[in-house]
Amino acid sequence: QVQLVESGGGLVQPGGSLRLSCATSGFTFSSYDMTWYRQAPGKERELVAIITSGGNTGYPDSVKGRFTISRDNAKNTVNLQMNSLKAEDTAVYYCNARSTTQPGIMYWGQGTQVTVSS
């Protein structure tokens, strides 16, 4: 049974930090590219950070220099360190796993709410 469980969301003031985690099970984690997406109310889901199975990372300009994605293949987890948070970072954050060996195989977590507000 595949599971992706996000944690670490919450309410934080502008300029603050949060660390999101995604604990996974039920698939070969090391063979999957892992991605964090977010979706704000009334907006489309957007990619926030990606880390490939080989450890390469990528970020959109909106979070580059503020967010850092990392993975622990021994613990089957992926993390997202978010610093210098802004109100526009408010969204539900989702963890995504995409297979590098089986095209089209993809899993999603349930999401965790991040609210940046004073």
Summarize the structure.
The chain is mainly β and 118 residues long.
What features would you describe in this structure?
There is one protein chain. The chain is mainly β and 118 residues long. The protein has strands at residues 3-7, 10-12, 18-25, 32-39, 46-51, 57-58, 67-72, 77-82, 91-99, 106-108, 112-116.
SSE topology:
Elements: E1 3-7, E2 10-12, E3 18-25, E4 32-39, E5 46-51, E6 57-58, E7 67-72, E8 77-82, E9 91-99, E10 106-108, E11 112-116
Parallel strand pairs: 2-11
Antiparallel strand pairs: 1-3, 3-8, 4-5, 4-9, 5-6, 7-8, 9-10, 9-11
Keywords for this structure?
single chain; globular; four-stranded antiparallel β-sheet; 118 residues; 0% helix; mainly beta; seven-stranded mixed β-sheet
Average residue-wise pLDDT: 97
Secondary structure category: mainly beta
In total, the number of strands is 11
Specify Rg, calculated over alpha carbons.
14 Å
Shape: globular
Number of helices: 0
Q: What is the makeup of the main sheet?
A: 7 strands, mixed
**What is the distance, rounded to the nearest whole angstrom, between the alpha carbons of the first and last residues?**
40 Å
**How helical, in percent, are the residues?**
under 10%
Estimate what percentage of residues fall within beta strands: over 45%
Order of helices and strands: EEEEEEEEEEE
The poorly predicted ranges are: none
